[in-house]
Amino acid sequence: LLQLFSFDETDTSLILVSSHELFSNIRSLLVQSVIDQPDNLIVSSDSGDICVLKYSDEIRQFKKITSKTIGKVPGCLLQVPGQFLALDYSGRYCMVSAIRHQKISLEIKLSEDHQNQQKNIIFTNISTFNNINVFTFDIVGLEVPESQKDNSQNPIFAAIEFNELNESTTLTSSPSSPSAEENQQTQYLTFYEIDISTDKIIKKKESEALSANCNLLFKVPGGTIGPGGVLICAENVIFYKYPVNCKTNICI
Question: What is the pTM (predicted TM-score) of this model?
Answer without folding.
Answer: 0.82
